[in-house]
Design goal:
Largest sheet: 4 strands, antiparallel
Helix content: under 10%
Distance between the termini: 32 Å
Number of helices: 0
Strand order of the largest sheet: 2-11-6-8
Strand content: 25-35%
Number of domains: 1
CATH class: Mainly Beta
Shape: globular
CATH architecture: Distorted Sandwich
Low-confidence stretches: none
CATH topology: Deoxyuridine 5'-Triphosphate Nucleotidohydrolase, Chain A
Radius of gyration: 19 Å
CATH superfamily: Deoxyuridine triphosphatase (dUTPase)
Order of helices and strands: EEEEEEEEEEE
Length: about 150
């Protein structure tokens, strides 16, 4: 078992309706973020939505911004799948949404569409080699190599 450690993240609420992200249950990996304004997204439209706050993320960490599982019941997608918010970012936190459906979609201020997950960062040191060893069970198999 690993010991759980909490980290202090400073947040500046810059919109009158902005709320601090909140963990719904003990043990949740992600804190739900709330919309601070009503939004309307037309079919085939991609919209950048301001969440109404700025963060000071501890150095050596990132926040990953991911869709909440309930968003899978809609035709709204995150075009970039998972977003990374680096510790050096002090801008308004925004969410990129895309309506892939045939109907417009409306969300109200206070709705939860995404969650923030605080993750440690590990830097890679790259070493150029003549050939990367291929001695794994997967071998040269790549995308889809383990079947459906």
């Amino acid at each position: 078992m690993s010991e759980n450690t909490d980290y202090l993240v400073e947040i500046e609420l810059i919109h009158k309706n902005a709320k601090t992200p909140k963990y719904s249950y003990d043990g949740d990996a992600g804190a739900d973020a709330y919309l601070c304004e009503d939004i309307f997204i037309r079919p085939d439209e991609t919209k950048l939505v301001d969440l109404g706050f700025k963060l000071k993320i501890p150095e050596g960490f990132e926040f990953q911004i991911r869709p909440r599982s309930s968003l899978g019941k809609t035709k709204i997608r995150f075009p970039h799948s998972v977003g990374t918010i680096d510790s050096g970012n002090r801008q308004n936190i925004k969410l990129l949404l895309e309506n892939i459906g045939n109907e417009p979609v409306f969300f109200k201020a206070g709705d939860r569409l995404c969650q923030l997950i605080l993750k440690p960062i590990f830097k890679a040191n790259y070493k150029i080699v003549t050939k990367v060893e291929n001695n794994t069970a997967r071998g040269t198999g790549g995308l889809g190599s383990s079947g459906k």
